[in-house]
Amino acid sequence: MSLLELTPSGLYCPQADVFIDPWKPVDRAVITHAHADHARWGMKHYLAHHHSEQVMRLRLGQDINLETLEYSEPIHINGVQISLHPAGHIPGSAQVRLEFQGKVTVVSGDYKVEDDGLSTAFEPVKCHEFVSECTFGMPIYKWQGQQQIFKEINQWWKTNAKQGRNSVLFAYSLGKAQRVINHLDTAIGAIFAHGAIWNTNQALIANGVPVMDIPKVTQELPKSAFKGAMIIAPPAAMGSPWMKKFAPYRTGVCSGWMNVRGARRRRAVDTGFVLSDHADWPGLIQAIKATEAEKVYLTHGSTAIFERYLVETFGIEAVSLNTLFEGDNANFTEE
């Protein structure tokens, strides 16, 4: 007997009468993380990790009915034990573990297996059923270690500064932006944040997440303040009038999709850095094998390809689920 069923409102655990990351308003929602395709407005009651609290209130409203847990802290609802475990995706991201009458199901949300130094590192949770994303579930997706990527980012910034150009780097405002900020070399120059990123930083800092506190870009700042600087902005700022104050500048973007030939050109940026907060192909396999799950449900991404691989290579029963989770979107939406 499965502990989950897919309904028009999302993944549902009937025994506990709770939904995990529902996409329609419900009475009780367990939220894996605060990205917009997982944490939506309109739930009567939310349950999430402590580090997600302030950013969820920032995005969904200060008055939402939100209960928070620490990792591995169990609660019981109608005989179902529910606990949250590190997913390593962004600060506060969690896998949801459900246990009932000896059956264990884990919903991973989004995850990555590389420790980014900011999010609590991914921890595999043994289970009978595992719900896994596969945003980058194709063999072409294999990430370099993040230290190499950050070395490239800092060198790009340093070169731009020497050439008298400012650097504008696009990264999602929750998770990736803070990861990048914490790995920038402050000896190169000043670092500034777009307002959306600065607001997110303040919410995370208020929750005890060790994000570097950098100044916000404001109208009052003179153009000279940005000389040789690094400006971190969300993808929505690409090509907007807001960019004019930084000229002359070079642009870069951080995304797993930069692994695909032509992605940088299609996004009209100067440089692309292959940096994702999702597991690559080897990471997905590593995570799934570590769970020892007998059955795996796959959401968003290349589900058919990855499903076939798991069945044929490991003999794991794999099933694709048609969900509304977007993941690291190729169109560079907010999340």
UniProtKB/TrEMBL annotation:
It comes from Belliella pelovolcani. PANTHER family: BLL1145 PROTEIN, CLEAVAGE AND POLYADENYLATION SPECIFICITY FACTOR FAMILY MEMBER. This is Putative mRNA 3-end processing factor. One of its GO terms (molecular function) is RNA endonuclease activity. Gene3D superfamilies: Ribonuclease Z/Hydroxyacylglutathione hydrolase-like. InterPro entries: MBL (IPR050698), RibonucZ/Hydroxyglut_hydro (IPR036866), Xnuc_lig_assoc (IPR026360).
